[in-house]
Specification:
328 residues; alpha/beta; Spore Coat Polysaccharide Biosynthesis Protein SpsA, Chain A; seven-stranded mixed beta sheet; 12 helices; 22% strand; globular
């Protein structure tokens, strides 16, 4: 039984449901503890009553310390602040030996146990995943060496020591800006392999393929999944999960795929089926709440810099009418 936790509000509901369905498709037993950051998410998930899903409401989870800092942080910053707290809550409230936090915009193509077996063999108490940035997209100076996307803690002395240190730091400071070597909850991880005993850095290249590093790999279909080959070394691997970072549905009817170059084959094999899965998940959520926007659609900003970014994304074919993108 794999134990996972994630967090999101109703604007991210289609992503969270799609993550869930991808875990179901792996065929491995799991529990997914979903920390619901608004009442709509909690109520919809309780109505859906999905096997393996355990919804946790804010009323159950929020501590007085979290409520205090909540007033001083944006919604995004507060979610980052809470990540480490959700992990500790899941370990304690459900008496778990270990739990893996997942970003809600992950999608699994292979069994997560492949990655967790590597962790088990390491004998470590904490598992972290590197960004593995493509050189031209390397912003580790800002966002850190490691990505919080898939992070595991055991409920042992070493695991809890690192987790509680992280929780305390995020209460002190967790903002969407670079300051004194910090950025959000993520740059706190940069020195963990040296700071804490029992930290393992994931080696499997199939854990953490993302828009900022997929340019390094040739991705091809392989039976029911996908195989990747690292272009530089020729190393082959099975794709376990892809991090569909920053895909946005817009109120003008377009889909925004962000600022990273995505090869046509990647869009065809991975991105387009994922967006279709988001649409299916959104439709299922709207059956429960017809007035819901499960994608969190955003208005295109009209100021100069966002408009220039949008033009660049159109040139990259990363900003397209949704119907046109899905019809290809």
């Amino acid at each position: 039984m794999n134990n996972f936790c994630t967090l999101f509000d109703s604007n991210y509901l289609s992503r969270g449901l799609t993550l869930y369905h991808s875990l179901v498709a792996t065929g491995e037993p799991f529990r997914l503890f979903i920390f619901c950051f608004d009442g709509k998410t909690r109520d919809i998930l309780r109505t859906m009553d999905l096997p393996g899903v355990v919804p946790v409401g804010l009323d159950d989870f929020e501590s007085p310390e979290l409520k205090t800092v909540k007033q001083q942080r944006s919604a995004k910053e507060y979610c980052w602040t809470c990540t480490s707290h959700t992990i500790r809550y899941a370990l304690d409230a459900f008496r778990l030996p270990a739990v893996t936090y997942l970003d809600a915009d992950l999608f699994f193509y292979g069994k997560p146990s492949v990655l967790l077996r590597e962790f088990d063999r390491s004998g470590a108490s904490v598992l972290i995943t590197p960004h593995r940035y493509t050189r031209r997209y390397d912003i580790s100076w800002r966002s850190g060496i490691y990505c919080v996307q898939f992070i595991t803690f055991r409920a042992d002395e070493r695991g809890l020591r690192a987790l509680d240190w992280w929780r305390e730091r995020c209460l002190e400071w967790c903002h969407a800006r670079v300051e004194d070597g910090k950025f959000g909850d993520q740059r706190y991880l940069d020195d963990w392999p040296e700071r804490f005993p029992g930290v393992h850095v994931l080696e499997h290249l199939g854990g953490g393929v993302a828009p900022w590093n997929v340019q390094q790999y040739d991705i091809s279909a392989n039976g029911g999944g996908f195989t990747g080959v690292e272009k530089r070394t020729g190393t082959a691997f099975d794709l376990v999960f892809f991090h569909f970072h920053n895909i946005r549905f817009m109120t003008d009817g377009c889909i925004d795929l962000g600022d990273y170059y995505l090869a046509p084959a990647v869009k065809t094999a991975l991105v387009r089926p994922y967006v279709r899965a988001l649409e299916r998940a959104g439709a299922a959520a709207r059956q429960v709440d017809p007035g819901l926007d499960p994608h969190g659609r955003r208005d295109p900003a009209s100021s100069l810099f966002p408009s220039l970014l949008r033009l660049r994304r159109r040139w990259m074919k990363n900003y397209l009418p949704l119907g046109e993108f899905l019809a290809k």
